[in-house]
Amino acid sequence: MSSASDFAVAAQAVVASLNAAIVDPADAVRLLSSLAGFVANTPTTSSVIGQAMATMQAATGDMFRRAAVTALARASAAYQPSSADDAAAVRAVVCAAIDQEIDVAGDQGEDATFNALRLLRAAVSQDLAKRGTALAEIATITTLQSIPAPVLAQRIYRDASRADGLVTQANPIHPAFMPTSFRALSK
After folding, report:
1. Burial class (CB in 10 A: 0-12, 13-18, 19+), 26
2. Gap between the Cα atoms of 51 and 152, Å rounded
3. Separation CA 5–CA 3 (nearest Å)
4. Residue 1 has pLDDT above 70, yes or no
5. Alpha-carbon gap, residue 80 to 134, rounded angstroms
6. Is the pLDDT of residue 124 over 90?
7. What is the per-residue DSSP string for 110-175?
């Protein structure tokens, strides 16, 4: 790398390539949220070289975390929540990662980064809240006895074709023997 800006562009390209390589947006949210929590190890020496290493590692860690947070926000825009609860959970994960980086930027006095991250957080929060309000919430479904999935789907949704969705949510031993209590879409 010939300059710091070349290094920053390369770091962003690595995270963007990783995000592009992940097919499922849910996997992208999960993987990028773990990258957004990266903390560099502090060198064990207290020498001048050790202090310079610590400064460089901290700056590099900040750069990679911020690239991961940006990619995480993009991944959340591509993510299709299955329910209002799912949208709220993804919003909480993404906003927590952004909040953590907002705190770091604020503590370091990086006002432009702080403000940009606050705007990013607001956009992500509004987007997922808006998309989540149009979706059904998750409710606890309780029956007195085990009922086959198509019958249960007909009772709950008035549509037996939604039995596969119930099976996915409840993960029963067999679709003919649904659990007597599980969580699924309310409508």
Report:
1. middle
2. 64
3. 5
4. no
5. 12
6. yes
7. -HHHHHHHHHHHHHHHHHHHHHHHTSPPEEEEE-SS---HHHHHHHHHS-GGGHHHHHHHH--SST
Sign of CA dihedral 105, 120, 38, 1: negative
Question: What mean pLDDT do residues 170-179 have?
Answer: 84
Q: Are 22 and 78 in contact (CB under 8 A)?
A: no
Contact 84, 135 (CB under 8 A): yes
What are the tokens at 30? 């999960």
Q: What value does the mean pLDDT take over residues 145-159? A: 85
Kind and range of the H or E element at 181? strand 181-185
Q: Which residue has the higher pLDDT, 163 or 2?
A: 163
Q: What are phi and psi of 32, to 5 degrees?
A: -70, -30
